[in-house]
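Can't attach files on this board, so I'm pasting raw text. These are the components:
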Amino acid sequence: MTEAYVTLITNDSYAKGALVLGQSLRNCATTKKLVVLLGYKPEPQLREALQKTFDELIEVSLMDSGDATRLALMARPELGITFTKLQCWTLTHYTKCVFMDADTLVVENIDDLFAREELSAAPDVGWPDMFNTGVFVFKPSMETYGKLMELAKSEGSFDGGDQGLLNSYFSDWSTTDISRHLPFVYNMAANLTYSYLPALLKFGTQVKVVHFLGSSKPWHFSYSSENDNVYGGSSSATDSNMFHTTKPFIRTWWKVFNHSVQPLFTQETVGETTQSTSVPSSGAPISSETGSTGPKGSFGDGVPRPATQDQWERGEVNYTGDDRFQNIQRHLDAMIYKNGNFY
Ligand code: UDP
Ligand code: GLC
Ligand code: MN
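---
Top answer:
Structure tokens for the assembled complex are below.
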């Protein structure tokens, strides 16, 4: 009997999420296999880090609902690609699996989920009679996969992504068998807890899985380990109440990134110079530790630090890239508020 956690990545940004997820599962001492479905070809260094984290990397072909109209209802045009997730049902060399979105983070062992039956999932915060497909227990089966594909062709998904389709397929989830309703702590939507802060205060310590649902992901923010604070993201995200309640979770995500993921990108000696490997930033702003003395190299947040300091001091300033004013200001803010209360 082989059981596994399964996630999906189709680009470098979600790959960072998957690395944090995989490491968080290992930090919580899971005894299950870890599998990542690869919807693209990562660069060698990233692939190596994925291989160190996951037991199996399985290449899958991209599947897109192509349903721009329904995806527009969620304002998430990029989620048509989540149809690729459905290929998790083809992993028939496993008897049971738990699918987890690459934007989830495990903070406590959840191996007890494997005692649940297909399809077990937690309610969706937007519509609690539906389940959220960021975390679900399923049983791989080519028969089920075939039926899901048929449904995809005949009716499509009412939200343009996997969640609409899976809720149509497992449509009795809300009415039969309460044991298939996972407690919310197994898939806690981090960005929506501000709407019920008293519950977060009462139950927050019981949270096992944090889900960074929505378009703002932890890798869009920067983190400073010096003052243990989170910066950046879009201004609408940082100004809102949401940010204040989500921040501690983003911080936790970054701590796992810095402590467990970054060391996977080891120093390599090439000829006489020491080069470092770094997580490809794929253009998205992403930060390791501000002012870090750790491995050299830019993680894309652009705060001048050892790897670029020489260039900077020679007067070679990248005004529109790493050294842009916004990044310098962010660095100064971090220093100014180091021992104070940023808010
Ligand atoms: N995903 C991906 N590439 C994309 C979009 C999504 O690999 O461009 C995968 C990834 O595993 C992600 C999941 O599909 O966690 C669902 O997307 P997301 O988590 O962004 O949806 P949300 O939970 O925010 O609705
Ligand atoms: C959701 C879920 C996500 C799913 C997406 C598309 O909000 O959190 O897992 O992929 O919708 O259906
Ligand atoms: Mn998600």
